[in-house]
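Lecture notes, unit on protein representations.

Consider one protein chain, 1022 amino acids long.
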Amino acid sequence: MVEKKRFWKFASTLLAMVMIVALLFPFPASSYAKDTSPVKPAQDESQFLIRSAIAEQTELLKGKPKIHPDLQKLPANQEVGVIVHLSNRPAALEQGILAAQGKTVTTAKVKEAKVAAISQQATVSSQIQQKKLNVTKGFSYSTVLNGFSAKVKAGDLKKLLQIEGVTLIEPDVHVDAIPEAADQVKPSAIAKFKASTTFLGIDKLWAEGLNGKGVKVAVLDTGIDPDHPEFKGIYKGGKNFVPNTVNYAKPRAKNDPSETKPSERPPHLPAVNDFGGTFATTHGTHVAGILAATGANDFGFKGIAPKVDLYAYRVLGAYTGGEFSSIIAGIEEAVVQDMDVINLSLGGYGTSEAESMSFALNNAMLAGTVAVSAAGNNGLFRSSIGTPATSRLAIAVGNSTIPEAHHSGMINATVGKYKLAKVHNLMATELNQDTAAKLAGSTELVTISGAGAEADYKGKDVKGKVVLVARGEIPYTNKIKTAKAKGAKAILIHNLRNAPEGEGPANVFFGDAFDFIPAFDLSRADGEALRRELAKSKGSVSFSAIKTTTTAGDAISETSSSGPTTPNFDIKPDIVAPGMNIMSAKPMYKSEFPKADYRKAYVRESGTSMASPHIAGIAALIKQAHPNWTPFDIKVALANSAKVLDTTKYDVFAQGAGRVQAFAAVHPQAMAYSLDKAVQNQSGTQINNLKGSVTFGPQPIRTKNISVAKQIRVKDITGKGGNYKVSIQVKKTAGNAKLTVDKPAFTLKGEQLLNVTLTASKNAGAVYGDEIIGYIRISNGATAMSLPFAADLSGEFITELQTPAMTVLDLSFDGDGVNDKAEYRFNLTGNLAKNSLEIWNIMNPRSGGFEDGYIGYIHSAQTMKAGKVAIPITGKYRPWTGAPETTIPDGLYSFDFLGIPASNNPPFVGANIYPVVVKNTDPIIKATLTGAKLSGKVEDMYLVYNTELARFGLPFDLNSKLKASFVVTKNGKAQKAVPFTLKQNGTFTLNIQNFNPAADKVKVIITDAAGNKGEATINQTK
């Protein structure tokens, strides 16, 4: 469990988290010999969709060239990662424009656009060289974007923007793969993979011979274990897009997309960080297995599309983290290589539709590649979705459950005179084992101090015994795996005082896995009572009355992210699929461990990362069955045929069209395309947008009556036609708002256009939450289509905290005028009620007046007006202990802003900026000079801070914080300073050229990023 719930950056995942981040079936050749695409090609709808994407991207780059607000007013010498956009259209967007104009899209025309983009990039590069700008280029893009990634000195950003053709410079943002945080999984959220194939109707498709054969699918993730038996015969290779840095012990080839390996870990980074994330990655192998595993095992696991051509693009590196630039490079490569489907189980935070990755996915769809993205695991509340799932054209996937077995049993414990006899639920069990038999007999009960990490077992013999551990610090699954590795028979995990969900049992469940043992879920009271008595006496425990129950399934995970996106109030996710505790492959790194045994190389993971490859796999099946369908046909087929889940629990922004039904998506009799419009920005500009949902967007209900019409085009797919009825199912409304359709009944002959109209009277008192949402159902009895709809009737736009940034991240409050003040800046789109800027101590999460890591606050107020906000940081803060205002002590911090919108739309807004260094001490230099050889070590808190950040998977290059140089004095005259590089542990060894040991002197100078300087004159060693 992560100590700090609001340390959002690490909540993966996606990214990765990591949001972090975050991620198909056989048929006889003759079965689909006849083209089963729609009776009339979907070109009309595609034109609407293409114009939508074109307008949105054009609007973004209108007017003068722009620097993203997060990059403004940074220190001139600060190096920042950026993505530079250029004015010529990328090839995929040009392809979309040609289609929108009704022109033939030829290879020559697309190539011409690509050449024009590349040529413009060459011209810009030439100008960069002529102007001598501090720009180090990274990836170049010409297909899904036109531009490049780069490292740039902040002082050169405005000069770069002045080069002709540069239209936008935005930050290269870090994202994560996004499996769900292990301690957040709820008991109803279980999905056994074997069962999901039947549950989703996939086994029927397998029976028809649909297996994804001939379909090219790319997984953009942490890479793959190419030696895993599950990928034998289907893995076709891939590429690596993760740049090599000092945080990797060795380089790797560009054509090596394997997972980050244990041997690539440098000495200064931990094997496991504080969130249980491993340096060596596993996420991509797991995601790829869900999508395409061939079934090379003896316990029934098989991927959705076991005969696709599988490609892997490594866009995330150690600890499942990576940058926008690498991901966009992977998207670009996938489109260039004509991938049919791509899966991205990764993501960052933010509801905006106008992000680089979102635009890249838009353009991938325009180029003919089905783009599937995990929605994120930020929580089942409004606007928790993150990029790139905010892409208006791609398919965003939420996380649902299927029926699964749960277990419970009586714990009979005796410790001294204390006895516990109570039924408890099991969190986990061992795969392919009889749980009752496994728990038979009486066993010694042993308490483990701490949270059950490997170090907590030091000096303890637990082989064949039952261990008692506490919740906290590391994921539950890590506790269970460690206990098994130590030889324990079973594990009891008890809750803690002041736990967020209460002090009863944690109410979590993880299913069965090879590396699990039976794990029981105890309350704080029961666990602490046992622990207290075990401190005085030995104890024993036995188990009885082991029972199994089955959940209903079709719930949505409480961590699955919801829409809408901004500013268009779009319905996201588009669809949901099973993603809880999904069994899939895990890497064993055979290239490093030749004797690796893959027979048990399987593990369960949870999150939208696991839901997304279900949809990507099913999309591959649809593509195999209907090779002429566009990505938008596939998207609409998935949405139309989905099962709408319990609308009393899950609205359209939680489930989109509903839970996927694979067989129905492959075999539609008709499809209903929404010819929708969406508000592009606050000026009210509207653009066309095709999708499987109907979005009415924010409506000006406070000022006038409204009447807004949308269109749905129904197409006959099989040629059978039929008599259809249309019904409007309103699940929530406000005032007298209503939705009507002009043809509640019609006979389908080829296609039919329906007009749906939203009407409502003016309501000056409209408030946040006023909206109309529901589903439009179109059915002829034998086939049914469903389209979710939504309109915001609050009369106001959502309050957003946009582009948060701190002007200085390395501070030294010593009064010397260097880095001794900063500003916390953001743009606020609505007024706030209570709000505060607090300081969280990364190095001591139990500090502060409330022992939650928050040591105090810089700013606190009851109101804050909308607009540009700049909170001054001058080095003073007020402790939560009530002590007087004082100076922020040296340390490593996260500066966290939290506010409650006056409109309550949404319930809160916030931002975390970290890591922020406060440091007033000078570096200490210890060195020796032997002849011309200079060697030594720097002692400095930046080394300590780097070790701490490495525990979270966020190490920095020490040389980015400590600038080292030496000055030689010859004949009493100091020469020019010569910079040199420190090793990551602070040591250095170098030979000084043209140095006279008898007469010359040398001085070492270390200047840190906070402005502190250490100097030492080094004498010759005698």
